[in-house]
Amino acid sequence: MKLFFAFLLFPLVLIGQSKTVEQIHTLLDNNQLEQAKTLALKYHKENPNNLEAIEVLGDVYGYQKDWDNAIENYEKLVEAKPNVANYHYKYGGALGMKAKSVSKFRALGLIGDVEDAFLTAANLDANHIDTRWALVHYYLEVPGIIGGSSKKAMKYAKELFAISPVDGYLAMGHVHEDEKEYGPAESNYKNAVRVGGSIKCYTHLIDLYEKRENYELAIKTIDEAYASLKDESLLTRKAKLESKRP
Asked: Which CATH superfamily is domain 160-246 in?
């Protein structure tokens, strides 16, 4: 099982957080992981029962891929505030990444808890986008014999659409692409481009064309994206695709 969760690493939301937590998040953004860990441990030692201190320490461990310690900290949050969706989401994400890092046999003992955590988060917050993305990936990547299902994945893709049409189009496109339903996948990605127009939206469509070895359409889409966004990385990708074109 792949258990690759594209929503990780965890989003860093700075609203209402202390200056220390903002500093830690800045360090994480700049990949200064050891400095972030030192500051987070100090902050936690000075505030051992502070949920913000526990959460940011869990985030640091997550960035360091120290899943056991991330799980331990997020579990404390879930136990302290069981009605906070984001705590369950982060706990489930850390469990999922732990499952990815161990043997398939050990992973089987974890994935049920991963699903429970994500479902709890989804039930607690009807507008939690990251949780629904997590469930889309989870149900596509877990084998059917233990609960994986494109139908379940599509359910949460449609919930995403109700919250954010761009995310919904991307998620529905992803489900169709996973099922090798390339026509509907293309339509959804095009709708995402139409509504969102971001580099992320264009990238999904370009990736699909490259996967299908339709280099002409991939390059045409890159040209359209560059005309709109002026992102230099698109030109680098265009050159690579042109080298593959017959």
From this structure: Tetratricopeptide repeat domain (1.25.40.10)
Instruction: Output the pTM of the full model.
Output: 0.90
What is the amino acid identity at position 151?
A: K
* Cβ neighbours for 85, distance < 8 A, ≥ 6 positions apart: 120, 121, 122, 124, 125, 128, 131
Task: Summarize pLDDT for 178-196 with one digit per residue, the tens.
Answer: 999 999 999 999 999 999 9
- Annotate 117-175 with DSSP letters as a single string: HHHHHHHH-TT-HHHHHHHHHHHHHS-GGGT--HHHHHHHHHHHHHH-HHHHHHHHHHH
Cα dist. 60→94, 113, 212 in Å? 12, 22, 38
Spatial neighbors of 174 by CB under 8 A, at least 6 apart, are 136, 140, 157, 185, 204
